[in-house]
Structure formats: structure tokens, C-alpha cells
Amino acid sequence: MTQPRKRTRASAKAAGARFERHIADHLAKQLDDDRIDRRVKNGAKDRGDIAGLRAHGQEIVAELKDCTRWDVAGWLREAETERGNADALAGVVIAKRRNIGDPGQALVMCTVDTLIALITGRRPEAE
Fold it and tell me: What is the pTM of this model?
């Protein structure tokens, strides 16, 4: 019986890059928008992993995750920070599901306030 391969930093980075490419290509095709593509990394002022994604004419930040261990709360904080960096309408997390290669079946996570922004085109006011 073969042992499962241990994930290294290099293999994790390669898997993440492949996932970003698959999601960017899927979004661009399904939304018929050739402006959607992988974003060049920006370091401390990261603005998400996908460029050109829009709703109501405003930018949507998408933070993509292809991880074996999930940290939804941390990922949502990261998406919100990147939304602020980009002055975007909303920030979402797109996570790869294990053993499912179809990019259209990846999960999208966001807060309720982000869902409101996506539906209405405006950020809800703090209560």
C-alpha cells in the first residue's frame, strides 16, 4: 500500500496557483468577462487573488484557499482586510472542496453583511 504524499510548502503553493488559475478561468468564462484573471501579489497591501471581479460596477475581492485544514474565521478576516485594501464592495472566500475538481463546485463564504452588499450594491451600515 502506498503512503499519501506529505504536502510541502512548494507543493501547497503549486496547488494554490493551480486553483487560482482554474477559478479565474471559470469565472471569466461563465461571466463572459475577459478582465477577470489572477491578480499579481501585492505583499502587505494584498487585494485578493482574483482581479476584475465586479458586482454593481464595484470590485469584489476574492481570497482563494486550497488547504487541507480550514480556518474560516481567519480567512474571512483576511478577505475583509483585502476588501479594505482594495476599497471594494465585498470580500469573499472561495475554498476548494477535497476531491472535487470542478471549479464551479468550490465553496463561497462570506458574512451576512457581505451578502447584503452583493445583493444591494452597498455596504450595510453598522448597527
Answer: 0.91
